[in-house]
Structure formats: structure tokens, C-alpha cells
Design a protein that fits this description.
With 345 residues, the protein is α+β, with helices and mostly antiparallel strands. 39% of the residues lie in helices and 19% in strands. The radius of gyration is 44 Å and the shape is rod-shaped. Bound molecules: 3,4-dihydroxyphenylalanine.
């Protein structure tokens, strides 16, 4: 009997070694502990033994039963653990892989620039004002000191909607007129007016029949050209960096006197001269000047009491300079790759 028990012990241990499946383990369990299992069969032989032998053999039978159960339990645990590890290994998420890029919408270069300039001007106490794109000749030209037949109208030929009175605005300057007229307080104004403008131009790399302007107007007591220069300097530094300088060149606009064109030092070559600034070191950004007394009077302001400055620039031109866009038509071709905010890194 004793030998039999020992033999079973050795056999069981050997059969549990190595790589076996859960099913194999169940079979082994049945082979030893099942109804007809080797250990169960030994227990059945107990009844044929003498009392003395029963005592001794019963003990070793119990031992082998406990031994078999714990050995099989242990194996069962290690098989389950191996299965779990294999599963974990297979289903592992490799977080070191780059994620899938989610393409978000972003403002166009034009819209982005407008928003950023609005932020700047709002911080300086300006209001953002909009006006209609279909405008009266009266506001687009006449009250701006550009009567019918004025030669300065030639540069701003536009699309007429009805006779010669209703047109697509050729500049954002009529928003100055609208605001001045509707403003009850005739002592001060501080506005910027971004928006679409139109001209009867043939499209090429630097002209588009539709484009965007931003107008600025400030009226108060004692406003001088120095205030205009300071304001434009802030815009230039904001857009092109702290080292940017601003200069005025005298110019002509019927609605300002004196009138200037304002240039910024070339951000690409820091004013040394390069193809972007046509080797002059300067880039023209827009027009400006002191609001003409006639325009003030036209809108109910007293030029003896208040004065003001105004400026206007093209947003596409700024975007071309800032983002290195070489063809203005790019802004209207809907090619998403050109928007710097959308470029994938
Ligand atoms: N409206 C002008 C244009 O389209 C730009 C401009 C020049 C606006 C001088 C102004 C100004 O307000 O004062 O060319």
C-alpha cells in the first residue's frame, strides 16, 4: 500500500509538470480524485484492511489526498495566471504610439488676424463697429469729401447695384461716416471697423475684386498726428515684433488732412533690404491721416473743438506679409493647407 501511495505521488507530480491546459488539468484531477480515480480507488480498498492497517493507511491516504488537491490547485492558479498574462500582453495599449490627429476647424488667416487686432484695440478702449457691404454712394464717397467726378474716385471704381447711388463699398471708411452720424455724443469716438470691401479690379497676385479692410477712427479733444503715429507703432510692433519701426510718408486722401501712408520696417530683413521689401527696408501697410475738417463738419462735429485721426489697411496684405503668402488669390481658393493654423505638425 505504502508503495502504491508513493508511486501515485511521483506520477501525479510528473503529470503536472510542464505546459498543460485547463482541460488537461481537469482530466488529471479526474484521473486521481474522480469517482474512479487512482486515489479514490485506494480509499475503496480501505475496507478490506485490518483495523491496525486501516489506521496507518488511512493517514497516508489523507495526506496524499490533501497533497493532490493542493498540487492541482496550485497548478490551476498558475495556468490561470499564464492565461491572464498572455491576454494582457496581447491587448496591451501602446501609449507611446502617436495619437490619431483630430482635424479641428480654425479661423482663416484673415479671420484670425481680424480677431487678434480686435483684441488689441478692445484693450485700448476701442469699439468694434460693422457696416453694410452694399452701401450708399453718399457714405462711401460723398460725405468722405469725394464728390461725384472727383478724380480720387478712379482708384476706387467698384460695382454699382442701383444707378450711381447704391454700390458695393470700396473701402471701410463709410463706417466712419455712419458711426459719426449716429453718435449723439459729438465729443469723442474710438472705433475700428473690419469688413469686406470690393473694387472693380482684375484679379492678380496682389489684387482681388473682394478683399478685407480694417478702418480705425479716433476723435477727441487735442488729438494730433503724434497720437496716430503712436497708435500705428503699437499695431506694427504687435503684428511684426517689438523691433519693428514705423514711418510716415506724405500722401493724399480726400477725407484726411494731412494724409500719410504708413510703412513698417521690413520684418524679414530688419530693414536691411531684401526681395520682400523690394530692397528698401520698408513695407507700406496702409493709409492714414487727420480727419478732414469737412468730414467732421459733414457729420456734425465741430473741427474747432475736436480733432481726430483715421487709418485703413488691407488685411490680406498684412496676412501676406505676416505669413509669407505670395498670391492674394490664395485666400479665396479654399485650399485648407495654406492656413498656418491648420498645418499639421
Ligand atoms: N480708405 C482708404 C483706402 O481704401 C484707406 C484709408 C486711408 C483709410 C486714410 C483711412 C484714412 O481712414 O484716413 O485706400
Amino acid at each position: 500500500m505504502k508503495e502504491k501511495v508513493e508511486k501515485i505521488k511521483v506520477e501525479l507530480k510528473a503529470s503536472l509538470e510542464g505546459n498543460i491546459s485547463i482541460q488537461d488539468l481537469a482530466n488529471i484531477k479526474a484521473e486521481y480524485l474522480g469517482k474512479k480515480g487512482k486515489i479514490t480507488e485506494l480509499s475503496n480498498q480501505l475496507k478490506d484492511l485490518s483495523n491496525e492497517e486501516k489506521k496507518e493507511f488511512g493517514k497516508s491516504l489523507n495526506e496524499i489526498k490533501t497533497y493532490a488537491i493542493s498540487l492541482i490547485d496550485e497548478k490551476s492558479k498558475s495556468i490561470e495566471e499564464a492565461i491572464l498574462n498572455e491576454k494582457l500582453e496581447k491587448e496591451k495599449i501602446d501609449i507611446s504610439l502617436p495619437g490619431v490627429t483630430v482635424k479641428n476647424g480654425a479661423p482663416s488667416m484673415i479671420e484670425g488676424l481680424i480677431e487678434s487686432l480686435e483684441e488689441l484695440f478692445l484693450s485700448m478702449g476701442y469699439d468694434v463697429v460693422e457696416g453694410p457691404e452694399v452701401e450708399k454712394d453718399l457714405y462711401n464717397f460723398e460725405l468722405l469729401n469725394l464728390p461725384k467726378g472727383h478724380p480720387a474716385r478712379d482708384a476706387q471704381d467698384t460695382f454699382y447695384i442701383k444707378d450711381e447711388e447704391i454700390l458695393l463699398r470700396s473701402q471701410t471708411s463709410p463706417v466712419q461716416i455712419r458711426t459719426m452720424l449716429s453718435n449723439e455724443d459729438k465729443s469723442s469716438i474710438r472705433i475700428i471697423c473690419p469688413g469686406k470691401t470690393y473694387r472693380r479690379d482684375d484679379d492678380d497676385a496682389t489684387h482681388t475684386h473682394q478683399f478685407t479692410q480694417m478702418e480705425g477712427l479716433l476723435i477727441d479733444k487735442g488729438i494730433s498726428l503724434a497720437d496716430l503715429k503712436g497708435t500705428l507703432d503699437i499695431i506694427a510692433k504687435y503684428l511684426f515684433g517689438e523691433k519693428t519701426e514705423t514711418r510716415f510718408r506724405s500722401s493724399f486722401y480726400p477725407f484726411t488732412e494731412p494724409s500719410v501712408e504708413f510703412d513698417v520696417s521690413c520684418h524679414a530683413c530688419s530693414g536691411k533690404g531684401c526681395p520682400i521689401c523690394k530692397h528698401t527696408g520698408w513695407i507700406t501697410v496702409g493709409g492714414a491721416g487727420m480727419v478732414h475738417p469737412k468730414v467732421l463738419t459733414n457729420c456734425g462735429y465741430n473741427p474747432d473743438i475736436v480733432s481726430g485721426f483715421a487709418f485703413g489697411f488691407g488685411i490680406e496684405r498684412l496676412a501676406m506679409l505676416k505669413y509669407g503668402v505670395t498670391d492674394a488669390r490664395t485666400f479665396y481658393t479654399n485650399d485648407l493647407r495654406v492656413n498656418p493654423d491648420r498645418r499639421e505638425v
